[in-house]
Amino acid sequence: MGGRVEEIFVTGEGSAAMESVEEIETIEGCGIKGDRYCEGTGFWVRYGDVCQVTLIEGEHLDEIEAQGLDIRSGQHRRNIVTRGVDLLGLRGKQFKVGGVVLEYDRSRPPCKHVQDLSERGMTRALRNRGGICATVVRAGPIRPGDTIEEA
C-alpha cells in the first residue's frame, strides 16, 4: 500500500472551521478526541450520520485545487488527508495508520453542507472523491507522516 498521512484537521463543533493539527488522539468506539463527531456536536449527529474518522486522498485534492477551488485549508471537512493510498480499495478491510488500527466503514460522499461552509462548486468538485469513513479498532495517536498499510 505504501501510503502516508499528509495533513490532519479537526473541529470541536459542527459548522466551525476545520483546524490543522500536528497530532490527534483516537478513541475506540468514538473517533478523534475533541473532534465534533466524537463530542456529539457534529452537524449530522442529529440525523444519526456519524463518521468516527474521515479520510480523503491528497491526490483528489490536487485535482480539485487545479479547478481553482480552495480545498487545502480544510474546506473538504475531512479529518485525515492521505497520499499514496487508494482509500476506496480499503473497502471491507482494516488498516493501520501509524500504530492505530482503523476499519473501513463506508464512502463519504460530499453534501451541500460542505458547500454551504466553503464555496460554490465544492459539492460537485468532491463528487466521487469525497473520501471514506472509518471506525477506530485500536486507539492511539496519529501524526502527519505516519504510514498507512493494511492491518
Automatic annotation (TrEMBL):
Ranges for domain MOSC: 19-151
InterPro entries from the UniProt entry: MoCF_Sase_C (IPR005302), MOSC_domain (IPR052716), Pyrv_Knase-like_insert_dom_sf (IPR011037)
Single GO term (MF): pyridoxal phosphate binding
Domain of life: Bacteria
Gene3D superfamilies: PK beta-barrel domain-like
PANTHER family: METAL-SULFUR CLUSTER BIOSYNTHESIS PROTEINS YUAD-RELATED (PTHR36930), MOSC DOMAIN-CONTAINING PROTEIN (PTHR36930:SF1)
Name of the protein this chain belongs to: MOSC domain-containing protein
Organism in which the protein naturally occurs: uncultured Rubrobacteraceae bacterium
Lineage of producing organism: Bacteria, Bacillati, Actinomycetota, Rubrobacteria, Rubrobacterales
